[in-house]
Design brief:
Length: 411
């Protein structure tokens, strides 16, 4: 689960100093994103684009969220034309990765919000459709309706933060979030109950469906935020995801990357095909010929279950995602990274190797490989916690990217 650190200050200089202190903090490599709370600035000394560029120079490749929280939803910025103008101006700098927008959950004004979202996305940015209520949490059905209204906008992330008055309120929001996530597995959700009463909801992300959580390093931007050290400790204990699984088609680079990442993490690397061949006392292609694919998939599923719940790097065969039970195990027990490469890359690598999987016999051409990859791609993406675009990247660059993803997700 990615950690987001809010940055707040009275001036741009104070924010930049806080960012620099954050970069020097030992927990900085574990952070997924920083949020600049622009609404909390009491005065603006320099152009917004300059402030954003200086922020980017400090945080490097970390994600940057630009947020103007208005007085409608607990912030300090007046809602009006200037709100829209400032958000578009921020995105025109091409610096932020995300713009947080307090979209309407009713019908009034939807056209204006859709236009603003389209402008941000047209400038290369992503949008967080957010809703906050610092006074109350509505009932379960209304929570679900708010999430449905937020997700009706074509944004990348949906965010909902509510103040609970009872334990039932906390459970209602978590259930609403989990149901929404199950219906929208490819979209990201940030869901939280605020205050001390809702604090547990910020770490129970497997139950709430939330993809990210706001944590504090210096000061909290909302009631109930965890300190980063405590959050990481508790989140890791609660998470069922202990190991790393590298997913992808044959020839995507799983076998090359697994031992290098394992060495970096101080873990053990396991090649599932190799373990299966040792168990069968024969090559996989021979096992296919003698016993068929169905029996092979049963043995593969059994081995995957036995390797769950441990800190290691797993390199499964490309077809491991074909069985629903395997996808469930991968989702629950592994941080899964899909190494995505083109059919041309696969063909080139397989042509250079000695062994070809049984299902590729007689299909060693771009069209056949591409068709098989397209059929499996949806399964890889369903399971993946992270997608690594592997084409054109060196082995060392891929290792660094994967290692950073592990740190940012608490492994």
């Amino acid at each position: 689960m990615g950690m987001i650190v809010p940055i707040q200050g009275k001036t741009e200089e104070e924010c930049l100093e806080t960012l620099q202190a954050l970069k020097e903090n030992p927990y900085f490599p574990h952070i997924y994103a920083v949020e600049l709370r622009y609404d909390l600035l009491e005065r603006h000394v320099e152009p917004l684009s300059d402030f954003l560029r200086k922020s980017r120079e400090i945080i490097g490749k970390k994600k940057l969220i630009f947020t103007i929280r208005t007085n409608r939803q607990g912030g300090a910025f007046p809602f009006g034309k200037s709100y829209f103008q400032a958000n578009i101006l921020a995105m025109e700098s091409r610096v932020p990765d995300y713009i947080d927008l307090e979209v309407e959950t009713g019908e009034e004004g939807r056209g204006s919000w859709k236009e603003c979202i389209a402008m941000v996305q047209g400038l290369g940015g992503k949008v967080i459709a957010s809703y906050h209520d610092f006074e109350k949490t509505p009932g379960l059905r209304e929570c679900e309706e708010i999430l449905n209204q937020l997700s009706s906008y074509s944004t990348d992330i949906v965010k909902i933060a509510l103040m609970p008055r009872s334990k039932e309120d906390v459970l209602n929001l978590m259930l609403a979030g989990r149901r929404w996530k199950d219906r929208n597995p490819k979209r990201e959700l940030i869901s939280m109950s605020m205050g001390e009463l809702g604090k547990a909801s910020r770490v129970l992300h497997d139950l709430s469906g939330s993809s990210h959580s706001f944590v504090q390093v210096f000061s909290a931007s909302a009631p109930g935020q965890w300190g980063i050290e405590d959050y990481m400790e508790v989140s890791k204990k609660l998470s069922g995801k202990k190991g790393l699984a590298l997913l992808g088609f044959m020839g995507s680079g799983k076998s090359t990357l697994a031992p290098k990442i394992a060495e970096r993490c101080g873990w053990q690397a396991y090649e599932m095909d190799q373990l299966l061949e040792e168990k069968f006392a024969m090559r996989i292609e021979e096992f296919f010929r003698k016993f068929g694919e169905e029996r092979f998939r049963r043995e593969e599923a059994k081995l995957l279950r036995s390797l769950s719940g441990k800190e290691h790097v797993l390199s499964p065969g490309g077809g491991v995602v074909l069985r629903e039970e395997n996808r469930k195990v991968l989702k629950e027990h592994f941080f899964s990274i899909y190494i995505k490469v083109s059919p041309e890359t696969v063909l080139k690598r397989l042509a250079e190797g000695k062994n070809v999987r049984p299902l590729l016999q007689g299909k060693m051409n771009v069209n056949e490989i591409g068709e098989m990859m397209r059929k499996r791609s949806a399964y890889y993406e369903e399971v993946a916690d992270y997608i690594l675009e592997g084409d054109g990247k060196s082995v060392s660059a891929c290792v660094e990217e994967i290692y950073s993803a592990l740190l940012e997700n608490g492994l």
